[in-house]
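INFO batch 0412 | record 1 of 1 | parsing
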Amino acid sequence: MSVKISNQFKLELSKLEQGALLDLYEIDLRAITNSKGQVGDVYRFYAGTNELKSAVIWQGKAYQPYPIQASGFDKSGQGPSNRPTLSISNLFGIVTGIASSFDEAVGAVVRRRRVYMHYLDAVNFKDGNKQADPTQEILSYYIIEQLSSLKHDVATFTLALPTETDNALLPARVIMADTCTWVYRSVECGYTGKAVADEKDQPTTDINKDKCSQCMTGCNLRENTRNFGGFVSVNKVG
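INFO prediction complete | emitting C-alpha cells
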C-alpha cells in the first residue's frame, strides 16, 4: 500500500536514465508480545552496503546489510490484491528465533522504503552528500499474514494489505475534513524538522512545547500540507 510519492520523486521515476533505486525494509514487531510479555523489536535490512561498505543510513536509521528479497508487488484494480512474499536469510537463526518467540511474526508490520541512492543521508558517503533529502522516498506497508516457509538457510513470509488482515472496510479511517488523524512526527505525518509551534499554533523554538494543532494550519506552518491526514475535499459542496 503506497502512502506517498512526492512530485519530485515522480519526476525521478520518469527520467530515461535512472539512478540506483534501493529497497529498504523494516520489520516492526512492536505490536507483538512473547509469552514473557516482552515487546518485539524493529529490524531494518538492506541487501547491500553504502559507499563506505557499511550499513545504509536513511532518515538517521541504520539498515543492516543482510540477504533479503521481496517479490509480487504488482498492482491491479481488479479482484483481490496480490500476496507479496518476503524472503530473509536464516543462516544465523535470526528468523527461527523471532518465529519461535513471537508467533511466527504474524501481524508484524513490514515497511518497504524505495529510495534513490543520491538522496541518502550524507553519512553514507566519504565526501558527504549535498543532494541528501530524507523526504524523497516511496513508502509502502504490509502486514505479515503467515510464515509460509522456514528452512535452515532462508525463511519466506507472505504479506497482505493491512485492510485485508483486520476485516476493515475502506476507508479504514474516520473521514474528517478539518482534523488530521496522524500522530505528530510519526511515519505517516512525515515531519522531522525543528520545533515550530505549540498545539494552538503559537510559535515556539522549544522542542518540548512543539506540538501540532492537528489542523491544516499546523501543516502550513511546517510546510507539510502534502501529508495532512484529513479529507479536505469532503468539506466542499458541488
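INFO post-check: The longest helix spans residues 7-14.
INFO record closed
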